[in-house]
Amino acid sequence: MLLFEGKLSLLCFLSPTPLAVLLIFSYLEIDVVFIDIEESVWWILLSYVVFINIIIHILLTDYAYQIAVRAAFLGSVFTSGLLAACFLPDPLTIFGWYMCVMAFFHYSEFLTIAITNPRSLSIDSYILNHSNEYIIAAITSWVEFFIEVYFFPELKEMRLVSCIGLCLCVGGECMRKLAMLTAQGNFNHVVQSVRRSDHELVTHGVYRICRHPSYVGWFYWSMGTQMILVNPLCFVAYILASWKFFNDRITVEELTLLNFFGEKYLEYQDKVGTG
Questions:
Q1: How far out from the chain centre does Cα 115 lie?
Q2: For the residues of 81-96, what is the DSSP string, one character each?
Q3: How many of the other CB atoms lie within 10 Å of CB of 16?
Q4: Any idea what the Cα angle at residue 101 is, between residues 27 and 152, rounded to 5°?
Q5: Tens digit of pLDDT at every position of the chain (275 positions)
Q6: Alpha helices in 88-202 (DSSP H)
Q7: How far is 78 from 100, CA to CA, in rounded Å?
Q8: What CA–CA distance (Å, rounded) separates 189 from 271?
Q9: 119 in a domain, yes or no?
Q10: Are the beta carbons of 141 and 226 closer than 8 angstroms?
């Protein structure tokens, strides 16, 4: 049963859905929309986002407000990505794909924790403020994209690369979420230093493939985002930075798990690779 915070976030994330319906009608040229969607869509989106945030501000306070406003923001980014993918000229359409991928990843992190481990649920479960390095990396990728769009627009027309990147993102996302759903309450965004009494070693499902499937999924998702944008410089930088981050994180986690489970984890290490 999804707890209140999860339901609230889902409602707010899906709140721009009417815009998506208008988009579909317009995109399929179904004659039931009585305005020029292509010319008005960004004003509609802006007005709708302002309206949603006013309603949230009036109805909610404190923790519920913090959950709702973040979910509504991510839902608006996702919808903006759909609009960009459909209405902006090439090569800007692929930035719309990227927006959808980013928004869905961050929202689904919160929702999956709400389903699998509600006691650890917090505002940080959106991992929007993951780290300063994460924010800098994202901004750097945007800067590279728009500089290359201006100076080398033909580079961004390599649609096959973007499609492969999208597939990597979807595959990585699925693997990470499968890992979280398999681990249930044993999964946490923060490496635990003290073992809970109900903490179990998970070795079934995707954990039979590798010991850290959530990190493997996130790694491939990260690479995929830069392939979507066809960012050659950030693609290389993301591989190096992500490898270092996950290598350091896994080293700490492996030591922690050895401390928690001892011989049992040593046997698991012998049978299954890191990832």
A1: 16
A2: HHHHHHHSPTTTHHHH
A3: 24
A4: 80
A5: 789 999 999 999 999 877 777 766 766 665 444 445 556 777 778 888 899 989 999 999 999 999 999 999 999 999 999 888 888 888 999 999 999 999 999 999 999 999 999 999 999 999 998 888 999 999 999 999 999 999 999 999 999 999 999 999 999 999 999 999 999 989 988 888 788 888 999 999 999 999 999 999 999 999 999 999 999 999 999 999 999 999 999 999 999 999 999 999 999 999 999 87
A6: 93-116, 132-151, 159-183
A7: 4
A8: 25
A9: no
A10: yes
The number of folded domains in the chain is 1
How many Cα atoms are found within 13 Å in the side-chain-facing hemisphere of 248? 5
Instruction: Indicate the SS3 state at residue 186.
Output: helix
CA atoms within 13 A on the CB side of 17: 6
CA nearest 89: which of 167, 18, 149, 151? 149
Q: Is residue 50 part of a domain?
A: no
229: Cβ contacts below 8 Å, ≥ 6 apart: 94, 95, 98, 141, 144, 145, 156, 162, 165
Residue 190 included in any domain: yes
Residue spans of beta strands (DSSP E) within the chain? none
For residue 254, what are the domain limits? Answer: 130-275
Identify the CATH number of the domain in which residue 169 sits.
Answer: 1.20.120.1630
What does each C-alpha distance from 129 to 70, 124, 136, 250 come to in angstroms? 11, 7, 11, 20
Residues 6+ apart with CB under 8 A from 187: 113, 116, 117, 179, 180, 214
Between CA 196 and CA 198 the distance in angstroms is 5
In a domain, 244, yes or no: yes
Task: Tell me the C-alpha to C-alpha distance, in Å, between residue 218 and each of 69, 72, 175, 242.
Answer: 25, 23, 8, 9
